[in-house]
Design a protein that fits this description.
The chain is α/β, with parallel strands linked by helices. It is built from 13 helices and 13 strands. Strand 5, helix 7 and strand 6 form a beta-alpha-beta unit.
């Protein structure tokens, strides 16, 4: 697990060095040799196809789809191991708190360029009419082409391009995020799939895998061992803090008691560069010796902001002001936390193999959580890799994360 804060100067070169994502793609070519595969920079930097799913409660969940591509032809391909007994599984990636799908801007295209496996029995569609299912399948997989379903990276509700929750309920509960994973799996007709979860996304993955163990084949946890556990004796204090903040803030966000007329309290930044600088600055408030690369911040902020051209002034030149699009209520105290006993119970109910990857300068874990992970969750693979909390999104460190993730999912 993540260690206590180390020498802050140990990875100074990683913090200061500004490697271009294209250079990371080149460096990753060497890594690919370890898995006896080849790839191209074009495959590494392939852009995702944007989709969304309308859930049964009216929330629209946005997601990016990275199809499996042939490294030579750049075409969607089937698996090359025809003797594989199981159909290839979709890979679902879950981001962390206040992040979005773009935190996988390096890992997802890497996986899509590397994974090659045996014929996929195309069952990925949405619930509904036969024609709707056919359209969904053809859009994702290509008509008549047996192929791996690919990598799917979602924006959890309130994040990225997904809908915000309505004003009449808590905006964020970890267990409810698991509900939206179930919605996505149902809409795309997934029977079994792999999950890669980062930070809060790792917590969501653990909750879902415990509740629906039959649907998860393998799980990779990045910088997160599951839900954040709190003392049971603090329950009433947490409820009060959440209620007080909600009452106070709702008066500002919903002065008319109407969702459609929510007042925007989001700060306006003069340009996207200022928003990126603000995102980088937040890292200094996190525990340990965490840091974030400009490249990773740029990728996430680009998806997390909305341009507001009507607010531009002539003094700003060509700069377009932006504001963050995430639900501001995500920063409120949570109404509910899991107790240590509940987290341990979740661990006991998970049946799939687990890989846990943490960063040398990542989020510190307390000893009690570490003991539970080692003795109850029992990951079959645990490694500490160079980097910080977003080591999978930083071009200086993402190659090692990608290599370990790929190796584990291909076993």
């Amino acid at each position: 697990l993540a260690r206590c804060p180390r020498d802050a100067n140990k990875h100074t070169s990683l913090r200061k060095k500004k490697m271009n994502p294209m250079k990371f793609a080149t460096a990753a070519l060497a890594t690919s040799a370890k898995t006896s595969t080849t790839m191209t920079i074009a495959a590494m930097t392939k852009k995702a196809v944007e989709h969304s799913i309308l859930c049964s409660d009216g929330i629209r969940v946005a997601y990016q789809h990275f199809p499996i591509v042939d490294a030579t032809t750049q075409k969607t391909t089937g698996y090359d191991n025809a003797t594989k007994e199981e159909d290839p599984c979709p890979i679902l990636c879950l981001h962390g708190w206040l992040d979005n799908a773009a935190s996988f801007h390096l890992l997802a295209p890497y996986l899509s360029s590397q994974l090659r496996a045996a014929g996929f029995n195309d069952t990925g569609g949405s619930k509904g009419s036969e024609e709707d299912n056919k359209t969904q399948k053809e859009r994702i997989h290509g008509q008549g082409t047996p192929s791996h379903p690919g990598i799917f990276v979602i924006d959890l509700p309130g994040h990225g391009l997904s809908s915000h929750k309505s004003s009449d309920g808590p905006p964020q509960l970890l267990s409810e995020y698991a509900y939206y994973i179930a919605e996505v799996a149902s809409a795309l007709s997934w029977n079994k799939f792999d999950i890669v979860g980062h930070s809060m996304g790792a917590g969501v993955a653990v909750v879902y895998a415990a509740a629906f163990p039959e649907h998860v084949r393998r799980m990779v946890l990045l910088e997160g061992g599951g839900p954040l556990a709190k003392n049971a004796s603090d329950c009433s204090r947490h409820v009060r803090a959440a209620c007080d903040r909600r009452i106070r803030s709702n008066k500002l966000l919903y002065p008319n008691g109407n969702d459609n007329k929510r007042e925007s309290s989001a700060r306006l930044y003069p340009n996207i560069g200022a928003a990126i600088a603000a995102r980088l600055n937040t890292v200094s408030r996190f525990p340990g010796s965490q840091y974030l690369s400009e490249q990773a911040a740029h990728a996430m902020v680009a998806r997390a902001t909305i341009p507001i051209p009507e607010k531009a002034s002539t003094a700003q030149g060509n700069d377009v002001p932006v504001t963050f699009r995430h639900d501001p209520r995500l920063q409120w105290p949570s109404l509910q936390y899991f107790t240590r006993e509940q987290v341990d119970s979740l661990y006991n109910d998970i049946s799939c193999p687990i890989c846990l990857l943490t960063a040398e300068d990542g989020w510190p874990f307390d000893r009690r959580s570490q003991d539970s992970v080692e003795n109850i969750l029992k990951p079959v693979q645990m490694k500490v890799l160079p980097g910080s909390h977003h080591f999978h999104a930083d071009p200086d460190t993402a190659d090692a994360v990608a290599s370990e993730t790929l190796s584990f999912l291909r076993d």
